[in-house]
Structure formats: C-alpha cells, structure tokens
Amino acid sequence: MSAAELTPPEAARWAARGGLPLPADRHAAVAATADHIHSVVAVLRELDFGDTPPAPAYRAGEERHDAAI
Predict the structure, then answer these.
(1) 3-state secondary structure the chain
(2) Among 8, 5, 16, which Cα is nearest to 42's?
(3) In whole angstroms, what is the distance from residue 63 CA to residue 13 CA?
(4) What is the spatial distance between Cα 34 and Cα 16, in angstroms, rounded to a whole number?
(5) pLDDT of residue 56
(6) Of 1, 38, 47, 62, which sees the most CB atoms within 10 A?
(7) Are 38 and 1 in contact (CB under 8 A)?
(8) What is the pLDDT of residues 35-50, one digit of tens each?
(9) Are 31 and 11 in contact (CB under 8 A)?
C-alpha cells in the first residue's frame, strides 16, 4: 500500500478479497481505521531496535544491574 490514504471503495475491495464483505455503511469507518493503523505502524517501523534482544530473552521481574544508567 502506498502512503496515500485508503479510500472507502478500496477498503471494501480489500475486505472482499480477504473474504470479509462489508456493508456499504462501514466502508468509510474501515478505511479510516486502516489509515490510523497504517500511521501507527509507520512510526514503529522508524524505531531502531538494533540492541533490543528478542522477546524470549526477556525475563519479567528480573532486574539487570549491569545496565548503564
């Protein structure tokens, strides 16, 4: 998908392709929701997680005392 906003007819077409036909009164709401999700994901894609360990390495409740302050 390009950076352009998703139009209600495009949202209906993509939903139908995925096997989820939408009633006509939901096209605009689905398009707006998809655009919002896309904008949030775009921000997350810009973050640098280079030094972040994978989730299985995380241990809840354990403090790391060797971390830089």
Answers:
(1) CCCCCCCHHHHHHHHHHCCCCCCHHHHHHHHHHHHHHHHHHHHHHCCCCCCCCCHHHCCCCCCCCCCCC
(2) 5
(3) 49
(4) 15
(5) 84
(6) 38
(7) yes
(8) 999 999 999 889 888 8
(9) yes
Cα gap 32→42, rounded to integer Å: 15
Per-residue tokens: 32: 């707006």
User: Measured between alpha carbons, how far is residue 29 from residues 11, 21, 32, 39, 64 in Å?
Assistant: 9, 14, 5, 15, 45
Q: Which residue has the tokens 């997680």?
A: 49
